[in-house]
Amino acid sequence: MSETNKTEAVKVGAAAASDEREVLLRVEGLQKHFPIRKGVLQRQVGAVKAVDGIDFEVRKGETLGVVGESGCGKSTMGRVITRLQDPTGGTIHFEGKDITRLNTAGMRPLRRDIQMIFQDPYGSLNPRHTIGGIVSAPFRLQGVEPEGGVKKEVQRLLELVGLSPEHYNRYPHEFSGGQRQRIGIARALALKPKLVVADEPVSALDVSIQAQVVNLMDDLQQELGLTYVIIAHDLSVVRHVSDRIAVMYLGKIVELADRTSLYEAPMHPYTKALMSAVPVPDPKRRGAKSERILLRGDVPSPISPPSGCRFHTRCWKATEVCRTTEPPLAELRPGQRVACHHPENFEDQQPQDTVLLSVAKEAAELVPTEEAAEADGSEENPEASATDDKK
Ligand SMILES: Nc1ncnc2c1ncn2[C@@H]1O[C@H](COP(=O)(O)OP(=O)(O)OP(=O)(O)O)[C@@H](O)[C@H]1O
Ligand code: SF4
Ligand SMILES: [Mg+2]
Description:
Elements: H1 3-17, E1 23-38, E2 43-59, E3 63-67, H2 74-81, E4 89-94, E5 97-98, H3 104-111, E6 114-117, H4 131-142, H5 150-160, H6 177-189, E7 195-199, H7 207-224, E8 227-232, H8 235-239, E9 244-249, E10 252-258, H9 259-264, H10 269-276, E11 291-295, H11 320-324, E12 330-333, E13 336-338, H12 358-363, E14 364-368, H13 369-375, H14 382-388
Parallel strand pairs: 3-8, 3-9, 6-7, 7-8
Antiparallel strand pairs: 1-2, 1-4, 4-5, 9-10, 10-13, 11-14, 12-13
Helix pairs in contact: 4-5, 4-6, 5-6, 6-7, 7-14
């Protein structure tokens, strides 16, 4: 069994067992609206509905991948569940405890348990501090004295993430993007967190380095029993490491399923479109007669999202009911929740509603796979490198 297949098998087993695992984080009806103010009186004239009512849970030891196009609220969701920003609605429970409204003092002990890894390995490390100073900061902030002293522990962490303990006195500018992200990971892991939320941890890195960093995170999870929420807008990044995947569109979760179901039988048209944008991984299948969907247009503004199903302005299956009625996120198959009136790979939920909206006819474009590959130059297959690189 190749290394890749081994990882696959472990992940499939983990996904199957995930339902029995204890819930670490539970999010219900979560909202984050940013007010828009105008005039001298700074009256509120509207709101950016960045996160607009989402429900999910994360179980101990699992990896939840969160994907969606730019601006759909992924980072905001990450910042709110780590309580770096306050939610404007809904609840967040961590280990059964309601942490939605905890103030800074109340959150302090939890800062150890919930850590965030950021997208930008350049901006997130203070250039004036040494690596030792950066990775030891969490110990100082929390007043924790590890066994054997801070320096020894930091050097152990540096080794854990594949850096040399001798890097202790060096500065961030002396490191490459991939190495800096390893430093960010070492800092996040310093206090043995229970939950790590990684916001696009590799999107600022070269494709060749991305796989190494993702694989490092995967190895650390096995070793340290970590729980991850990994945000990405590229499905290929989370595909191999996630047990379950949540697909976000305009502040909502539109599909949430275990990885295998999501890949083998996506139900939400938006999920299908996102997957369609991922080059076919198997070269043998490349010439096959599959078609790819190119989504037209941009994500609408979260200030005034479309009525009914928010995806109806870009969906090729949209009918009248989609325009008027918001579909609930319903568990159509065990472990697969979908918000759609006319799902793919499943029976129609509104079969009486058959007339396509005029926007639906122009919404998406079907292109033969080979043509799409030529058009976006995706002959090179980043997914293959994402797994081949596995040590
Ligand atoms: N502090 C803020 N004030 C006002 N609007 C904000 C703020 N932060 C984010 N937004 C808006 O909320 C929406 C969601 O942004 P967010 O950064 O969460 O999206 P994202 O899915 O992470 O996108 P990307 O893939 O580009 O990182 C966007 O329209 C953004 O402009
Ligand atoms: S079919 Fe309707 S409900 Fe389903 S995604 Fe398209 S617009 Fe939304
Ligand atoms: Mg973001």
